[in-house]
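Could you join me in thinking about how sequence relates to backbone shape in a protein? We need material for that, and I hope you will provide a protein of your own picking. Label the sequence line and the structure token line clearly, so we can match residues to local backbone shapes. Would you write everything just below, so we can both look at the same thing?
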Amino acid sequence: MDEVSISEHDTSLTLEKVCFQSETQYLERKGLHEQHVKPSKVANEIIGMLNAGGGVLVLGVATDGSITDMRSLNEQELNRYRTLHTNFIQPPANVTLEEVVLETGELIFLYHAPLDVERLYARSDNEEVYLRVADENRGPLPREQVRKLEYDKQIRKYEEELCTGFDMSDLDLDLIGWLKEQLQYEGTDEEFLVARHVAEVTEGGCVLKNAGVLLFAQDPEKYIPSTVVRYVRYEGAEAAVGEEYNVIKDEVFTGNIPTLIESLKKFMSIALRDYYYLDVEQGKFMKVSEYPKDAWLEGIVNALCHRSYNMQGNAVYIKHFDDRLQISNSGPLPAQVTVENIRHVRYARNPRIARVLYDMGYVRELNEGVPRIYRSMEKSMLSEPEYSVKNDIVLLLLRNKVAGHEETVSDRVMSLVEANWASYNETQRGIITTLFNLHQATLSELAEVLGITETGVRGYLNLFVGQGIIEKKTNKLRDKHAPYMFKKSYNPRKKS
């Protein structure tokens, strides 16, 4: 399909995107013959967008991308859709209806719902409130959630405030130019910033909002304190002070949010250690990072995207211990979100920032970040992520297996096991796998885990000891309680 924009209001909207891109926080499709497509139901969807991060509702394009000409309706029905945003929504919303005639002749409607940080929108006939979360509309919301939403809109105002002292020569023009190219925007830089709602035209000229400073200033710290990210590496599993002080690396990262993300992607890829896990299907030891990239990167992006920048003095912290990684940002959790439901419910604390990061590809789906962290940790056979909130600080904790696996198996032993894996029987593979997972085990423990007799295990242990794969940690000739483990150095017994 043609990649030319079909919208004068949003240049990123191509026909392919409108028809086939997955529905997101900012994009919803409604076919005329689908359920919930009455004007009142479409109004509910627009209300949800108005109360979240804004977006576009496409009417006349079904979920599967098929197009139905809006002119198949009679004029009276068509006018009900033309006026639904004025008839069903209160207070009056600045929704733009764009009627687009495609090259193939069909008419579709694009409802452009802007973000409004101050007002809460509801149905004008029954006062029901809706909220768009990821690719679905939630509601009507109970009164308690409506109150939380009202509170969060007060916090949201900070990213909308004008940074009147900003010097426009401090803009990151390369970043702006790159994003303009991605979105096929042909206007000036200032027009682009206004179009993305991160700047405003005043009598004195174009002025950046705080969201614009955080996204496009070369040095946001010059205007907004504590916009940095601080990485601290500790030796051990706890932070110590005084003579026991154990910080071995302390790095501060500065720059706008996209620059911070890119800098941290490179830095963390080097800072994180590798460990091996045994793929029992292939019989190979696979080297992976101590934390999957999707987990730590999403954690960092979420912290930068959703932190409360009005709570100054609290930088984003990445604390790296031997056994865990902690990523923290100033909170509290935004409306609708709790520690218990954070995997399934998302709400943008800073929707202007979230929208631009989405355009840049950093926030692929507003509701996908946290689930992706869970999935990537599970896929890497690591512990489930842990979220907590204390003193208005949101903390994400990721646990690794490096401490247990470090130097568990030498390179020579791994090569020997891999070379002979195909010839091992079920018991032999069970011994290797159990020792890798437990790091060491006695004869009786192995027999219990494998469900066979000690005699059945002992012969294979002796064979592995003779091959220099396993060693028995004891000074006694006969010690049934001695632990077995992988040999640290390759030195097989010589035949007599």
Summary: Residues 490-496 have pLDDT under 50 and may be disordered. The chain has three domains: 15-141, 229-402, 407-486. The two ends are 75 Å apart (CA to CA).
